[in-house]
Amino acid sequence: MKRDRMLDRIAETGKQWDVAVIGGGATGLGVALEACSRGYQTVLLEQHDFSKGTSSRSTKLIHGGIRYLQQGNVSLVIEALKERGLLIQNAPHLVHHRSFIVPAYDWWSGPFYGIGLKIYDLMAGKLGLNPSRRLSREETLSHIPTLEPQDLRGGIMYYDGQFDDSRLAINLAQTIDDLKGTVINYMPVTSILKKDDLVKGVVAVDTETGNQYELESKVVINATGIFTDQILKMDNPGAERLLTLSQGVHLVLDEEFLPGDSAIMVPHTDDGRVLFAVPWNGKVLVGTTDTPIPAPLLEPPPLEEEIEFLLAHAARYLTKDPQFSDIRSIFVGIRPLVTPGDQTDTATISRDHYLLVSESGMLTITGGKWTTYRKMAEDTINQASVVGDLPEQESCSRNLKIHGWYENPDQKDPLSYYGSDASHLKEIMAKDPVMKESIHPRLPYSKATVIWAVREEMARTVEDVLSRRTRALLLDAHASLEAAPLVAELIAKELGYSESSMKRQIESYQKVCSSYLP
Questions:
Q1: What is the model's pLDDT at position 251?
Q2: Which distant-in-sequence residues (6+ apart) come within 8 Å of 436 by Cβ?
Q3: Pick from 167, 193, 210, 351: most CB atoms within 10 A?
Q4: What are phi and psi of 127, to 5 degrees?
Q5: Cα separation of 518 and 506, whole Å?
Q6: Burial category of 507 from C-beta neighbours within 10 Å (exposed 0-12, middle 13-18, buried 19 and up)
Q7: Which fold has domain 416-513?
Q8: What is the pLDDT of residues 348-368, one digit of tens each?
């Protein structure tokens, strides 16, 4: 996947696209993949980097959503469980099973949640994972030895999916490229092209060169997540606000707080949300919060009360109470929630996706979650084919293997999440043994991963590599900051960046890190 090749396709004069997608997060990438898999000429434009926003800062779960079942949204749960099963089949190098335990501290909670999780199992049908089961007190503590034992009566074990969100985003972009679609980062859309008040394309600017492009398209799709309202106003300055925004904070702790393979799921916290403590890449993720915010930000800061909330709730369920000094990284994602009239409690707003066709003919897809990205895309392109008068083509994405597909990967292999591309990284190491060296003693990444990210995954900056091509920023923010100069040097050699340019990149990365550092 080469950026220069993408620019060449975009610069073709007189070309009309079938589908132009604005936004390179989970939704936009899914929509673009759905479009080009049906044979439509597709271009995707991302203002920053792929999955820069919320799509790289999820709880790393591919799940049906126990909370939605509690809320009675059965259709969303069934849809999500079906998509969970498909994604495990289509990207087995990135999505795998994870056992979760709901600890029972009351006599009634075991039977209550046990019945609920049996229903959850049944909803998954043929695409289900291992069945849920009741655990004794001793069995529960054997799976999670650091679980608070006082008053513990037992637990319920069930299974869901876990994944690496930004790695999946990059693989989706590569799959689009494999299908001859065009995806490009650092290309914000600055205005909408119209003729007779109907959308006919977009104007975009390459932030690396300053070059401007007018791209005509039969249909334009707004898939910008938390920036949905800004694009709606770009199309129609009088457009009403569609979204309510809510941010969720996650803390990253060392593995000692939750050793083993099982995660903890607490069904009901003080703010009405589900709380997770999940093993991930040798660390533990604790999240999440639900705090309404007034406006979208690419780098939203965590609030002190959110951090204290998560530390306090984690302390209730872990024998070792995590302190502020134990936090290795803090990351924040913003949810694009479709405003349901006058409802203000963001924790209870549905995560169903929402599809809108403006008077101008622009399509907007928003809401939803990572688990259902494929179904969201299918619904969107079904509508887009009508709006853009495109040749009717059936969806084939249910069984479409994602780039890197590799059956039965060894999850202990540090390159397992590259899937079939792992062999190419090993070739880089074989040609130059220096590439085997780690970028930092506390990070599980080699110099080869940096080179591969730049050559084949369209990474352009230190942040691209340390935040999204690898997950260094999320695993250990301090370590990633210390690795930044070395990573900058490797990038500069590959892309021919000047010393002053890389110095600016390091300074920019230091600013980004400030929100992740405890």
A1: 98
A2: 429, 446, 447, 448
A3: 167
A4: -95, 15
A5: 19
A6: exposed
A7: Helicase, Ruva Protein; domain 3 (1.10.8)
A8: 445 578 999 999 999 999 999
SS3 432: coil
Q: How far is CA 250 from CA 146, 319, 466, 475, 515, in A?
A: 20, 20, 18, 11, 12
Q: What is the residue extent of each domain of the chain?
A: 3-54+166-242+349-399, 100-162+244-347, 416-513
Round to whole Å and give the CA distance between 511 and 260.
34
Give CA–CA dist 465/167, Å, rounded: 11
Give yes or no for a contact between 488 and 502, defined as CB atoms under 8 angstroms apart: yes
Domain 3-54+166-242+349-399 identical in fold to domain 100-162+244-347 = no
Q: What local confidence, expressed as pLDDT, does residue 480 receive?
A: 98
Do residues 187 and 5 touch, judged by C-beta distance below 8 A? no
pLDDT of 20 above 50: yes
Residue with tokens 């589908």: 19
pLDDT value, residue 123? 81
pTM above 0.85, yes or no: yes
Residues paired with 262 in a beta bridge: 99
The fold of the 3-54+166-242+349-399 domain, in CATH, is FAD/NAD(P)-binding domain (3.50.50)
Whole-number Cα distances in Å, 458 to 37, 245, 399, 443: 21, 30, 26, 22
CB 314 within 8 A of CB 267: no
Q: According to the model, what pLDDT value does residue 69 have?
A: 64
Identify the sign of the CA torsion 390, 393, 394, 397.
negative
Evaluate if residue 346 carries a pLDDT over 50: no
Give CA–CA dist 315/335, Å, rounded. 26
The SS3 call for residue 265 is: strand
Q: Is 475 helix (H, G, I), strand (E, B) or coil?
A: helix
Token pair for residue 439?
């970028």
Q: What is the pLDDT of residues 368-383, one digit of tens each?
A: 999 999 999 999 999 9
- What is the C-alpha to C-alpha distance for residues 110 and 25, in angstroms, rounded to an integer? 38
8 A C-beta contact, residue 252 and residue 91: no
Residue indicated by tokens 């639900």: 290
CB contact at 8 A, 329 and 282: no
Please, is 257 exposed, middle or buried when counting C-beta atoms within 10 Å of its C-beta (0-12, 13-18, 19+)? buried
pLDDT at 8 over 70: yes
Give me the residue label for tokens 């479709």: 338
* Homologous superfamily, domain 100-162+244-347: D-Amino Acid Oxidase, subunit A, domain 2 (3.30.9.10)
Which amino acid is residue 148, in one-letter code?
E
The answer, yes or no, to whether residue 343 has pLDDT greater than 50, is: no
User: What DSSP line would sit under 382-441, residue for residue?
Assistant: HHHHHHTTPPP----GGGPPPTT--SS--TTSTTGGGGGGHHHHHHHHHH-GGGGSBSST
